[in-house]
Write a structure and sequence with these properties.
By secondary structure, the chain is an all-alpha fold. It contains 16 helices and no strands. It is elongated and about 70 Å long. It starts with a helix and ends with a helix. About 5% of the residues have low confidence.
Length: 292
């Protein structure tokens, strides 16, 4: 088990309520040997607390090491109990709900597989290429030097641009990110460490968020759902804050039109302002008439 997977286990089992990210990293490193622990401490000293996951990639955790890590967590959370009793309490009461969460994750992954086909439709591919133009400068603010976005940055973007919790649940964000990051890892064949999204996969992640959003009308078509979703995030405070980070310190909300590219291509949508029950066929007809 890698450090990334171990930290995901801590999050999914809700042990993160009692164990901080840095504490979990230290427990992981201690469980796989003193050499790696020294390297980790040097990384923290150089890069700051909490950077272990992104700056340190040494070693894998065996099953025996995983058991040692659970024992260390149990002793920390239930210090008043004997070691064996503390571990039993941890397993029976603190992490058993992960099975229910995994069922929800598997259900979400099944929904994702069904939605991937919708992203491959010609009209949707065209829309995503235009969306990429809009989102590129904002995406770059949340990436590392390798132009890739990790899970923590994806969550931060989602909070900053009012995707979470206003439009999507954390489970939706979690499954969208990790499903697409897994594709990226397969394509890269181990060239990059950890789970990341490049720009194209990030745009697809946003599109999946639109299709799974709890506030976007599901009866409308794929293109319309994505455009509606993009309209909402374009109205967020994240746009203004991002512009300031890019150097425009005097920006006001009225000075920004992040939808400029999409307005040019899908002018009929933005002019007609469909009611929730209007169908995508109306939009298709308008676009076909514009581009015979």
């Amino acid at each position: 088990m890698s450090l990334t997977r171990f930290l995901a286990f801590i999050r999914d089992s809700e042990l993160a309520k009692s164990i901080s990210n840095t504490e979990a990293e230290l427990i992981f490193i201690k469980s796989i040997g003193t050499t790696n622990e020294r390297r980790f401490r040097e990384s923290v000293k150089e890069n700051g607390v909490g950077k272990g996951e992104t700056e340190f990639r040494g070693g894998k955790m065996s099953f025996d090491a995983f058991q040692q890590a659970l024992s260390a967590i149990a002793e920390k959370m239930h210090s008043e109990l004997p070691s064996a009793k503390a571990l039993l309490t941890l397993v029976e009461k603190d992490i058993r709900n992960i099975e229910l969460k995994n069922e929800s994750v598997e259900k979400s992954r099944g929904m994702l597989r069904a939605m991937f086909g919708r992203l491959r439709e010609e009209k949707t591919v065209d829309l995503l290429s235009w969306l990429s133009r809009m989102i590129r400068p904002y995406f770059s603010l949340y990436t590392h030097s390798n132009a890739l976005m990790d899970y923590e940055a994806f969550l931060k973007f989602s909070r900053d641009f009012a995707i979470f919790p206003q439009l999507c649940s954390k489970l939706v964000l979690h499954t969208n990110f990790h499903a697409l990051a897994f594709i990226n890892m397969q394509v890269e064949e181990g060239k990059s460490s950890g789970e990341h999204l490049d720009e194209n996969l990030f745009v697809e992640a946003l599109a999946l968020c639109a299709l799974r959003s709890k506030v976007i009308d599901k009866s409308s078509g794929t293109v319309e759902q994505i455009l509606h979703f993009v309209e909402k995030i374009a109205q967020s405070q994240g746009i203004i804050n991002a512009k300031k980070r890019m150097g425009n310190t005097r920006v006001a909300s009225g000075d920004i039109d992040p939808l400029i590219y999409l307005r040019q291509r899908y002018s009929e949508y933005f002019e007609m302002k469909f009611a929730p029950n209007d169908s995508e066929e109306v939009l298709d007809e308008a676009l076909n008439n514009k581009n015979p």
